[in-house]
Design goal:
eight-stranded mixed sheet, 13 helices, single chain, alpha/beta, 384 residues
Amino acid sequence: GDEVGTYFKPRRFEPAWWAWNAHIQTLASYFISTKAHARERRVRLNTPDGDFIDVDVVDGTTRRDTAVLVCHGLESSAAGSLPRRLAAKFNRSGWTVYSINLRGCSGVVNKHLRALHLGFTDDLRLLVEYAKRNGAKRIYIAGYSLGGNITLKLLGELQEKAIELGVHGGVAFSVPFGAYESAHKLQNSSSSWIYMNAFLLALKKKVAFVYSKLTPQFKEKGLNLLTLLTATSIIEFDEQYTCKLFNFDGAKDYYTKADSKPYLSKVKVPVLVINARDDPVVEERTLPTPKDLGDAPVLLHYTDTGGHCGFVDARLGSSYIIHEACRFIARIDSLADEVESSSTIPSAVVASKSPDHTTADEIESSLTVPSAVVASKGPDPRSE
C-alpha cells in the first residue's frame, strides 16, 4: 500500500529523437536488431480439455530456480521479436524463461477450435503450475498487449493462491484495458485503422488455415468461413467467432468479461503496469486509476509517448519496457533474497517503488528490508 516505503521508481521514458510519434514507435520496435536467444527446447503441455500448448524454454544459468513466464500478444508467438528479446534479457540475469505459445500460435494446429481469447487464463495458469512442479521456487509473469491482459486477469483470479503457486510478481505493458472501447477506437479512428486491418488480416489467414484442418468442428459450432473472411472489423470477427466458441452473448459481453481492469483490486503480488497514453490501439480514457486498485500492490506507470509495445528509448537505444520489466523483477527478486537470508519468512513478498537504476543489475544493497516487502501504487499514474 501507499504507506510502505519507496523501493521501486520507474525511470523516465525518453523517446528516441527519430521516433517522434506513436506510429513510428509502434512499428520501430519490431525492426530493432537485438541479440536474442532462440529457444533451447520446446515442451508440450497437455491441457485438461484434451488439447495442448507448446512452450519454448531457455534454461537458467545462475538462478535456475527462478522462472519468468512470457505471454505474447495477439497473433504473435514465443518466436516473435518482443518475446525473444524479453527472454534474452531475463536469461542474462540467470533466470529460466518459459515463453508460452498461446493456442494456435506455435505453428501447429491444435486439436480443438477452442483457442485463445483476451481473457482466457487457463493455459497460463497451467504453465505456472508446470514451472512450480519443475523446480521453480519463484515465478514471475511478463505479458504484453493481449498477453498483458491475460497476465493481470490471472493474477486477479488467483488472489492469494498466486503466492501458494510460487508467483512473486508480474509485469504487464501496453495492456488493452477497456477492450470494448479500444475495439471501437480501432474501428473508428482514422489513425488506428491500419492496426485493425493488420490484426484482421492475420486472424482471417489463420482461421482459413484452421478451417482446412478442422472443418467438421467449424460446422458443429455453426461457424461460417465466408462470414469470417468478409468481416470488416475486429468486433464483427469476434461476434462471429470468439463469441460463438466461448458462448459469450455478443462482443460487448465478451470484452467486458475479458477485461482485466476489474481484477486489479484482487491482485496480491507486486505488479508493474506500463502503458503509453498515445497508444494507437488502446483507448486512453479506459486506463485504470488508483481508485481501480484499492489496496492492491499494483504500480501504474503511464508515459506520454511510446505507442503500442514500442517505447524505443533514446538512452537505451532499445526497448524501455524490456529494460524496466527486467529491472522491476530483479528488484523484487533481490528483496526476496534479502528477506530469506534474514530468516524472516513473510506471507507474501511484495514490492513498492525503488530508487532509480541505470541497469537492471544495479540493485541497491543498503536498504533495510521489512519483514514483508509490499508494493505501493506509487505516484499519480497520470503524471509521469
